[in-house]
């Protein structure tokens, strides 16, 4: 069960995880709670990809991450697993409000992330929602206050933060910027800057992109604190 003892055990195992020498191969080698482990098993995920092996242990230890790895390398689980584990370790409940915010450049990508979250998060009790427009602002707004995890596009999320009365993000634990290169290429810089302004400073931030660029490092400078760089290259 979701008791303090289990959380303490996970925290200890995470502290003891040596990210330099850790010989990690499978998801079962990571200190994950039973709900996350069961969600991964049920989704038939077994062996870590390179970016997952590099990023997840650091993220579990609470580090900010600046991650670059090509499309198809498995970046989605590299941030969704830390999101679930963070909220589990904080013993997040439906009454704690928004705990994690995941920003994606497009509605299609947001939907894909949400589907993976539903699959691997199925054994967790967290509520999760999509904020990508398509419904009236008011309809979306009514559900926002009850969500623990939101997957959103930048423009729509900013609209809510500016306009939805009583939408409280003060407890936010984790911000994820996925496909940061595309977020910048699509001209969302100002929206993301404004969005980040609304969020508490005392949070963990994970930023992932397929490519490294000046714009991505600009965004990283603004949103990350003393980040760990995780860059996965293909073998020559
Ligand atoms: P990226 O975001 O880096 O482009 P995705 O997270 O979308 O990559 O993953 C690409 C594909 O790889 C998806 O079909 C996903 O289900 C699969 N995948 C991710 N991690 C693993 C894993 N550890 N084992 C097997 N398949 C995986
Ligand atoms: Mg991706």
TrEMBL record:
Residues 56-230 form the Helicase ATP-binding domain. GO terms for molecular function: ATP binding; hydrolase activity; RNA binding; RNA helicase activity. GO terms for cellular component: nucleolus. GO terms for biological process: rRNA processing. It is found in: Nucleus, Nucleolus. Its main location: nucleus. It comes from the Eukaryota. Keywords: ATP-binding, Helicase, Hydrolase, Nucleotide-binding, Nucleus, Ribosome biogenesis, RNA-binding, rRNA processing. RNA helicase. Belongs to the DEAD box helicase family. The Q motif is unique to and characteristic of the DEAD box family of RNA helicases and controls ATP binding and hydrolysis. This is ATP-dependent RNA helicase. It comes from Schizothecium vesticola.
């Amino acid at each position: 069960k979701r008791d303090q003892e289990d959380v303490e055990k996970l925290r200890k195992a995470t502290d003891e995880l040596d990210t330099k020498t850790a010989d990690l191969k499978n998801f079962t080698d990571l200190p994950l709670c039973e709900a996350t482990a069961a969600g991964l098993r049920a989704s038939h995920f077994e062996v870590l990809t390179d970016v997952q092996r590099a990023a997840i242990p650091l993220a579990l230890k609470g580090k900010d991450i600046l991650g670059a790895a090509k499309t198809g390398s498995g970046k989605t689980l590299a941030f969704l697993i830390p999101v679930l584990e963070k909220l589990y370790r904080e013993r997040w409940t439906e009454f704690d409000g928004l705990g994690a915010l995941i920003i994606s450049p497009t509605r299609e990508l947001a939907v894909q992330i949400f589907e993976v979250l539903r699959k691997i998060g199925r054994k967790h009790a967290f509520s999760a929602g999509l904020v990508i427009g398509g419904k009236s602002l008011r309809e979306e707004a009514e559900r926002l206050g009850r969500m623990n995890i939101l997957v959103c596009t930048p423009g729509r999320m900013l609209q809510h933060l500016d306009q939805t009365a009583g939408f409280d993000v003060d407890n936010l634990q984790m911000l994820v910027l996925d496909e940061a290169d595309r977020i910048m290429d699509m001209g969302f810089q100002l929206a993301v800057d404004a969005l980040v302004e609304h969020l508490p400073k005392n949070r963990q931030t994970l930023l992932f992109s397929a490519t490294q660029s000046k714009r991505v490092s600009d965004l990283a400078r603004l949103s990350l604190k003393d980040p760990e760089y995780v860059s996965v290259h293909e073998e020559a």
